[in-house]
Amino acid sequence: xxxxxxxxxxxxxxxxxxxxxxxxxxxxxxxxxxxxxxxxxxxxx
Amino acid sequence: xxxxxxxxxxxxxxxxxxxxxxxxxxxxxxxxxxxxxxxxxxxxxxxxxxxxxxxxxxxxxxxxxxxxxxxxxxxxxxxxxxxxxxxxxxxxxxxxxxxxxxxxxxxxxxxxxxxxxxxxxxxxxxxxxxxxxxxxxxxxxxxxxxxxxxxx
Lengths: 45, 152
Prior knowledge:
By secondary structure, chain A is α+β, with helices and mostly antiparallel strands. Chain A contains one helix and one strand, in the order E-H. In chain A, 71% of the residues lie in helices and 16% in strands.
């Protein structure tokens, strides 16, 4: 595997806003997936 | 919301995971990027980490199988929720630890045909994003990286 890294040390306010939105979206999706997991494995018991 | 595929996984220790692959709407992707992008999300109970090579191999197999069946770029944003990690990893943030796990999944001999682009963005709490695909899609990964970099 080729690992390449881009490290942005001092991001602009625009980029910070962008990634914080990504983070927020991810947290909402994960909450839904956690509920799906509980349903899926709960029903298997 | 794009097409989704969800794969359940129970490890030999009995930890239950769901791995979700979700195709990102083309409208959200820069026009010059031709390869589909798939958001990867992993859910596990009780914040259990991937704590051994057997589980890591299972995850690696699932991701590689998906990449073999779909010509896509996997987009993995490392979330910030707490995750259990060994004594030597306590100094890492949860998202940095997840990032190491994503890299470890592909960091083996025989995986030379994959590319893993990590983007780290410093913030109050740092952000770790991985773009993983076959090397054939390196050009599109570069375009995505440049898109982020242009907002620097």
